[in-house]
Design goal:
The protein is of the alpha+beta class. The protein has 2 domains: 135 residues, Beta Polymerase, domain 2 (2-Layer Sandwich), CATH 3.30.460.10; 108 residues. Helix content is 60%, strand content 10%. The chain has 14 helices and 5 strands. A 5-stranded mixed beta sheet has the order 3-4-2-1-5, with helices on both faces. The longest helix has 29 residues.
Length: 282
């Protein structure tokens, strides 16, 4: 698709791509997919479509085990498919998401907030309806996860991983990692200093957004970027230290129990449906 046309019809372009991935899963796997959602730059309005840079459309898909999977103790599904355009489809069993959401990992929480998704399960809509509560259920752990993600990006800044080796060879570092390091600082600052919700903080405010994009698209000297990124890491550490010194650790256990009950109900419904189908055949 023409890059100018992508920008003009961004929402349609992204939704169509997600639909294609959903259909690909139905045609090429036997997973019972109940939810598939965008994960990544588009959720932060950090996606770029130019001659030099084209953002991938990566998705996370959630499947429900059937009776045979459970009775035979089959390995719980967790698999990532790399598509021809190098975009990714990460498929996981909903039983894994119960724990992933409890761990407050933003990469898995964000799919509850994206406007780019397909959902074909009414009870999963209940989970989407409590997304804000889930994200807020353990803010101390959320803060740890954001810090951990930022440190991973910092360690990857100059590491010649196969997928970014060309950038390391060209610039001495990966600009995408630098932009993530700063974006995660802004994300944490909005939530833990400015008291903005997780949902609103996913998209950086205008004062942060342009700088994020500049870090992603306009390479700097290695020495300068190293100094900048180290300062961003230190600033996030200070935010974490100050927040924890002024706030008690509170965990919304009731939220997690409700979440677990909904997931349990979704799985039970799937089993009942398959049993009814088997009975009808007999």
């Amino acid at each position: 698709m023409n890059k100018e046309l992508i920008v003009k019809n961004r929402y349609q372009y992204i939704i169509e791509n997600i639909n294609q991935k959903y259909n690909w899963l139905k045609e090429n796997t036997d997973y019972n997919i109940i939810y598939i959602a965008l994960q990544g730059s588009q959720n932060y309005e950090m996606d770029v479509y130019t001659t030099e840079y084209m953002s991938d459309i990566d998705v996370k898909a959630i499947c429900v085990p059937n009776l045979e999977d459970i009775v035979k103790g089959k390995k719980i599904v967790s698999h990532t498919y790399v598509m021809a355009d190098n975009s990714h489809i990460d498929v996981k069993d909903i039983r894994l998401y119960k724990d992933l959401w409890r761990k407050s990992n933003p990469q898995f929480l964000e799919i509850l907030f994206t406007k780019f998704y397909i959902c074909n399960n009414d009870k999963f809509e209940e989970i989407l309806g409590m997304a804000d509560r889930i994200a807020n259920a353990n803010k101390n752990r959320l803060l740890s996860c954001i810090k951990g993600m930022q440190m991973e990006k910092y360690k990857a800044l100059k590491h010649p991983y196969p997928t970014i080796k060309d950038k390391i060879d060209k610039y001495g570092y990966d600009p995408k990692q630098a932009h993530h390091i700063y974006r995660l600082l802004c994300f944490a600052k909005d939530i833990f200093v400015n008291n903005i919700t997780f949902r609103e903080s996913l998209i950086p405010s205008e004062q942060y957004k342009q700088k994020c994009l500049d870090l992603k698209l306009i390479p700097k000297s290695l020495n300068k970027i190293e100094d900048e990124c180290l300062k961003y890491v230190e600033r996030l550490k200070n935010i974490a230290d100050e927040y924890r010194s002024n706030n008690d650790i509170i965990i919304d256990k009731e939220c997690y129990e409700l979440l677990e009950n909904i997931i349990y109900s979704i799985i039970i419904d799937e089993i009942k449906e398959r049993l009814n189908e088997s009975t009808a055949i007999i």
